[in-house]
Amino acid sequence: MQFSVSLYSFYPAIQRGEIAPVDCIAKAKELGFEAVEAVDFVNFGDCATQEERLQRAKELRAAADAAGLPFSSLAVAADLLNGSGGDTAKEIQRVKEYVDVAVVLGAPRMRHDITQGYKGDRAKSYDALVPQLAQAVREITQYAQEKGVLTMTENHGFFSQDSQRVEKLYNAVDHPNFALLCDMGNFLCADEDPALAVARVAPYAKYVHAKDFIWKSYKDADPGEGAFRTRAGNFLRGTIVGHGNVPVQQCLHILKAAGFDGAMALEFEGVEDPFTALRIGLCNLRRYWAQA
């Protein structure tokens, strides 16, 4: 098992000016991680052109090489229905350009979002959109296969988040270079039991996000700053792995039983100090995996 960390986990400290994005790589090494995951808006958000992104990727790769850490993956936002002004071909091309960024990073995988769905008068069910979405995903992964990069989607973005939905998309794409990124915490955003959801998608998972949330019912008092609502209106707040309501060890047991032994990235998005949260979270994650 390779224990990685999403550089998104450092984002609050980056925003406060406590650490530069490139320095998060050395910090990850210091905290005991074995790899890092790059994220588009964290590491390339200020890049206006593809040339700038490729140059930034070279700089990040140099920093990672100096720290002795590989990139486990690259995470990219995408909307294959509404992105790039609703021009699907343009959005597909934009995502393909990030495949080239992954190549420069040396990342063997790239995760991209699918869509947040049509809204208002254009609303359609997920099932109705699967053929269109699968075609776009297949075009991206065919390009990525030529570059030696596995593409994945994650249960993320509320619309393409349920285990049944991502399973349907995976089967519809039906391409050997396309897999699922299983985020054990994100299923709660769709009000789905994480253990049952992980059990459904474990056979298709080639990468994992270990994440924890504190869950509160809609009927409870609004916890305020730091929390957000699930699809059904319940409350979630990110927290240290092992401190919340996600059955992390059970999810790891399910993944191990399914034969998963690849790379796993810890993703922290809580209000706690990220350096402390990542140190504790990694310690817990290693112990849970050993005991699973």
Automatic annotation (TrEMBL):
Xylose isomerase-like TIM barrel domain ranges (all copies): 25-275
Segments traversing the membrane: none
SUPFAM superfamilies, per the entry: Xylose isomerase-like
GO molecular function: isomerase activity
Highest taxon listed in the record's lineage: Bacteria
Keywords, comma-separated and alphabetical: Isomerase
One Pfam family in the UniProt entry: AP_endonuc_2
Keyword Isomerase attached: yes
Keyword Lipid biosynthesis carried by entry: no
Name the UniProt record assigns to this protein: Sugar phosphate isomerase/epimerase
Species of origin: Candidatus Acutalibacter pullistercoris
Lineage per the UniProt record: Bacteria, Bacillati, Bacillota, Clostridia, Eubacteriales
